[in-house]
Amino acid sequence: MVQSQNDYAVTYTSTQICAVKGSTVDIGCSFKHPSRVNVLKRVWFTKGNNYNPEDLKTDPAYAGRVSYSSHWKSCTLTIRDLRESDSAVYKFRFETDWKDFTGLPGVTLTVTALRVHVDTSYSNWATLTCQSSCRLNYRPSYIWYKNGHKISRRNQYRYSANLNPSDSYSCAVTGHEDFSSPSVCVRDDSCNRVNYSNRRICAVKGSSVDISCTYNSYESPIQSKSWFRSGRGSEDLTEDSQYAGRVEVTETERGRSTLRIRDLTESDSAEYHFKFKTQSFEWKSSLPGTTLTVTDAPMLPSVSVSPSGEIVEGGSVTYSSVANPTANYTWYKEDEDSEKASGHNFTITDFRPEHRKSVIILNIIRLTLVVLMLIALFVLGLWMRKKTHVALETGPNESVNVIKVNTRADYENVSASQGVTADDTEEQEELQ
Q1: Contact 153, 37 (CB under 8 A)
Q2: Is 39 in contact with 33 (CB distance < 8 Å)?
Q3: For residues 407 and 388, is the Cβ–Cβ distance under 8 A?
Q4: Cα gap 371→76, rounded to integer Å
Q5: Which of 138, 141, 104, 102 is nearest to 25 (CA)?
Q6: What is the pLDDT of residues 311-348, one digit of tens each?
Q7: Per the record's keyword annotation, is Zinc-finger included, yes or no (predicted)?
Q8: Could you tell me if 169 and 184 are in contact, meaning their C-beta atoms sit under 8 angstroms apart?
Q9: Which CATH class for the 113-197+415-432 domain?
Q10: Residue 114: what pLDDT?
Q11: What rounded mean pLDDT belongs to the chain?
């Protein structure tokens, strides 16, 4: 799709993209303009209008999840950890010292979760279909799971299964097994299954967290049930010395188990699973559980200048910035929107008189910090979104620059089904 006007143009690789929740998508884009003009600013947006867009990089909902291509005349947008709320029309706009241009109509992105549809038209067996709400843009291969265990040599989007009321099935896209569909029964609703409330949780060290799942056993009674973590066998966490006095398991309703871990440490970062056992069956799934990541509390970026003394003309000066969580940095010159560099460091190798100013201010702008606040009794994932401005006065011989920081860490509890983007395929069915 190309939109052009008087030597200004934006070209989108595709105007319709379907991607699976939890995956990463590239929205291909290139642009052109007359050689005599300079590009001052490049923006992707879904909100605002064509003349006053809201840059995705400053939107807290996309904090740490978006990046723009830095290649010459490439404007490809990358969005990571896709959410269904990311479904929107995306447009690219660039501003020059001569005129501004927006590529219309833009690219429609639809984010979908996987699910298993069960067709029981036949008396002895069921046809299972791994579905999405839109047609994926290429022909992926699939992985099927029965009662939480991978079924070998089954890579089609359809699978035929016996109508055994105790069995549950789940599907995933090959290469993205961490984002499988919820497990479903092939008959009735009494099969063996475990489904986790969140696939990923990020929490701050010293806080508390709740990890929950729903479960069902076809056979009664359940003789034992417990939580365990990856890399430690299947040891019950309530009996693990590392968690002594810090864990408890509760059931506020039948079929829902919650593991609460208090006073979190970084060593608690792991994938957590739930299992149960009856007289003749044990659910000990190879499906992904809930991945917990424990981090230090966020730290605002700090900026240092080297060398710290007077800078000699013709010499070099380096600006460095660090933050926790890890951040993406873009450096600007004061009063200019065009990017000068990206990364933790920005170096001027040939310091010239025009870099000198009597008063130097280094602004850290458009900083979005996403913080998970955990309450001791009931854990709620909350976004704390900030736009922070920090002024730093330096010596009279240092240059004026602006650094833009977008945090990379994602402090939101998400339940995601990962996949990939692809071209239309006859095999992929839409939800009815």
Answers
A1: no
A2: yes
A3: no
A4: 28
A5: 138
A6: 667 667 777 777 665 666 666 666 555 556 667 777 87
A7: no
A8: yes
A9: mainly beta
A10: 94
A11: 78
Residues present in the chain in total: 432
Q: In the predicted model, is pLDDT for residue 54 greater than 90?
A: yes
Q: Per-domain residue ranges for the chain?
A: 2-112, 113-197+415-432, 199-298, 299-407
Q: Which H/E stretch holds residue 107?
A: strand 107-112
CATH class of 2-112: mainly beta
Question: Quick check: do 2-112 and 113-197+415-432 share a fold?
Answer: yes
Q: Return d(Cα 17, Cα 226) in angstroms, integer.
A: 41
Asked if the model's pLDDT at residue 389 lies above 50, the reply is no
DSSP string, 185-246: ESSTT-S-EEEES-SEEEEETT--EEEEEEEE-SSS---EEEEEETTBTB--GGG-GGGTTT
Question: What is the reported pLDDT for 266?
Answer: 94
Distance, C-alpha 398 to centroid of its chain: 38
CATH of 199-298, one of 3.10.20.30, 4.10.910.10, 2.60.120.260, 2.60.40.10: 2.60.40.10
Nearest to 198 by CA among 283, 117, 293, 116: 293
**DSSP, res 353:** G
Q: What is the DSSP string of 51-84?
A: SSEE-GGG-GGGTTTEEE--STTB--EEE-S--G
The strands making up 339-342's β-sheet, listed across from edge to edge, are 339-342, 327-333, 401-407, 363-368, 388-390
Tokens of residue 166, six digits: 């105790």
41-66 burial: b if 16+ Cβ within 10 Å, else e: ebbbbbeeeeeebebbbbbebbbbbb
255 vs 381: CA distance, rounded Å: 23
- In Å, the largest CA–CA distance within the chain is 86
Return the structure tokens found at 182.
């919820």
Q: Cα(190)–Cα(199) distance, rounded to whole angstroms?
A: 23
pLDDT the model gives residue 212: 98
3-state secondary structure of 266: helix
